[in-house]
């Protein structure tokens, strides 16, 4: 009798537990009650912040093809709100948005030029304090209003925000002129000893006026405008103070040890601007070694080691011989060395330690750094760079000679 009674109670408790599981979460929010944000933009008009949102239209995204009927809905909707604070601007979105804003899937944040010059510390503060804001969001800057970037449709990706994020990821992986900067990277750069951060610029490139925001643009094989990576914005702490060209950014990345995979173009002689050959760099490392000379002069030694494959050859060196390969490697070495020197000279002219030299010196000479850290802006322009580059060609392909020379040999 007691045993049956116990089994009865166990069945009752099990039933109650299962009912509780089936009842769901008391505070859940259905998907159709959320406005999923794919990208945001931050602008400043001198008085108020303007936050723009790229909201996903689920029924359009679920379509199997972007080339549907003429009345097809755009994959996203863009609108803006303004306020004295960024959170105040976001709060006003409830006045015109029938759904609660959901930022967990936000891919990018584009900072307009005026907002960048004003300072983005408030934006960083938001990401430190809100659980729905992820530190892995990609950060970009633009030379006009950030909203314009969100309005530009992308022909390959359904979501323009995803297109920009994939663009910077692809460039960092295969080009290395730019680095993919996330909120967490920006915060670390702004709070480092040098306090400088480089953020990629995204622009609307083309012959048209303004962004192509019509869904009809997706049915064309060409477009008057497109999204494109431009320069590198220089941030001193939280403010935009200048720009580097993409070529200067390439040299900076060789110094900073942020080259992943890239194609290095070079000529047939040292210092030649007529690039006829190319090496696909498959691995590269850069080591910084600060030296404090007896006279107080700072010297930064940069030693680069890289390896790659020859993928284009327009020069006449005989690559069947070690001497010919060595000559090609020497020219490539000189090209990288020149890239680093030009980038360093530009940084000296702007007096911007974007290389993180201050952090390297701090680690190597902690006691000395305590004495000079307040005067680093005066000392940085006097620093000397001593680069050395060692590139090894692992493979040259199926021919030792350029194809043009093979044609001449056949005559």
TrEMBL record:
Spore germination protein N-terminal domain location: 27-202
Domain Spore germination GerAC-like C-terminal: 232-397
Regions annotated as coiled coil: none
Membrane topology per record: Lipid-anchor
Entry's localization field: Membrane
Transmembrane parts of this sequence: none
Pfam entry (one): Spore_GerAC_N
Keywords: Germination, Lipoprotein, Membrane, Palmitate, Signal
InterPro entries, per the entry: GerAC_N, Spore_GerAC-like, Spore_GerAC-like_C, Spore_GerAC_C_sf
Family: Belongs to the GerABKC lipoprotein family.
Protein name as it appears in the record: Ger(X)C family spore germination protein
